[in-house]
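Below is how a single chain appears once it has passed through the pipeline. First comes the sequence as given, then the structure the pipeline wrote out for it. We keep one example in the README because the format questions we get most often are answered faster by looking than by reading.
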Amino acid sequence: MTPTPLSLGARVAVLVAASLGLIFDGIELGLMPVASLSVSKSLLGDAYTPTSGGDWFARFTAALMLGAAIGGIILGNLGDRIGRSRAMGISILCYSVFALLGAWARTQEEMLALRFLVGLGVGGVWPNGMALVSECWSTASRPFVSGVMSAGLNAGILLLSQMVRIWPVTPDSWRWLFYVGGGPAILGVLVLVALPESPTWLANRHTTKKPAPPIRELFQAELLRITVTAILIASIPLVGAWAASKWMIPWSDKVAGASQPGYKAATQGWWALGATLGSFMGAQIASWMGRRISYLLISIGTTLLTIAMFQWTSPLQPSFHPVVFAQGFVATLFFGWLAVFLPQMFPTRIRATGSGLAFNSGRFATAAGIFLAGSLFTRLGGSYPQVGTICSLIYGLGVLAIWLVPDEAVEGTQTVT
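Resulting structure:
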């Protein structure tokens, strides 16, 4: 069947709804970096120590990433079966409801479980929202659409940081933030009952299709090298972002929290502003510079800027926020690269399966990397600069990894079969 295009108004509604879903997704991603130490101080009471606070920050973050990896697979697949808009609505409801329940958490373990459940919804919004927008706006350029969607995610982190600057999060006042996290449930209901469905999905839902290629095909001789290197280049920026970069926010909270409660929010705001611009520009810059050289230079730039953030400056110094902004901009260029070029590394017949496996493997690697970073943080006696610097070397692996990718994969010249 030939898809019937949506009206302009319906396409605008789809773009707005998907962008809002990702903005609220970003709020969920940015919530615990600014609230974690306050939550731990409140729930642990006299048992709290600066080292345990950092360890619990790593656990909360790892739980969210593990949930996002599983949610990206399960809820992404749900979008193929029941429709993009329905699956996106369910994903938004999932992260909203479980975020709201965090306002009544009584123990760290309860909060940990809730962050995992929030992650399920966080992981489901991206594949369904991206598919819905790309299918409804099929004439738009993929780099532009990828940039808009990625910018929405970081715009949510930026919005949250400004809210927290106005209403600081402290051990005595943090539950309100989880009430805010529950607000997007209204959007989830509206998406479920009113948002138009993808014309492409509707046109093809009753057609007879060939069975999906088995995942084991990705690990056979012809595709094994492509698959392994795709997992590697997807994992590096994901692990680096959460196991290295995010330590800057609890570090800011520790250094400046007592005298300037809003400083951690300002730190996140400067990073998110750079990330919003970087995630929008990433695909365009990568297309202009070339796939291999752009990934190489982004890897070098992010490594140097992350080391600079933890070793050449520190919270409350005048240079700290400019470096944070620059690091946010350069580090998120990776994700524009991945949105456009990761799928193109695989032949058409197994493109969706291959890119989905690579990206979600990166999320699983991120969860493991954060747990290891938390253990390292404890071994280093709770030193934020040391753990951030050591983990920043993950970005440097990109310099080697991009040269391991076969030429035909990095240039997108595989046989289309």
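The radius of gyration is 21 Å.

See the next section for the split statistics.
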